[in-house]
# Entry
Amino acid sequence: MIIGWIFVITFFSNNLLAQNKTIEDTGDVILVGLPAATLATTFIIGDTKGSWQFTKALLLTEGLTYGLKVAINKPRPFNNGDNAFPSGHTSTVFQSASFIHKRYGFKYSIPAYVLAGYTAFSRINAQKHDGWDLLAGAVIGIGSTYLFTTEYQQEHMELTFNSYEGNYLLGFTYKF
# Structure
């Protein structure tokens, strides 16, 4: 749903807003700040497994994004260069936001999704990408997260079931 709104806003904003350097610069800052804050938070709360999951997803995101950029070599809108598809800014920030969502829950990811959406908008505003570039970047970032990330709470709780010769055992373990 979030990607849908970002997609609609960015598609229709292309002709409505002029290029604004402040918006572009803010998107660049979020590109670095959001993943750095996400990774730092995993270390601060002692979630080393989450740190590793985030790192693997980020590496896959960057590898896929830049591999596709080189392979496809789509020109940017308004002759602003090459390698437009997919958007690297969008794939990176949506990977960070979706990691928070998948690992810690939706309520914690809302600010990250807002920043990711703003960054995607900044790429349209800077006339560096179109809506398809942003959509592909978001799909890559979110998809990479879902390949490597597990829910944080699942590490603390375990529900088991065993059956043997007509006997049944249901177990619940909670680790503090």
Q: What stands out?
A: Helices lie at 2-13, 21-44, 48-72, 88-104, 106-125, 131-148. The chain is about 65% helix and 10% strand. The two ends are 35 Å apart (CA to CA). The longest strand covers residues 157-164.
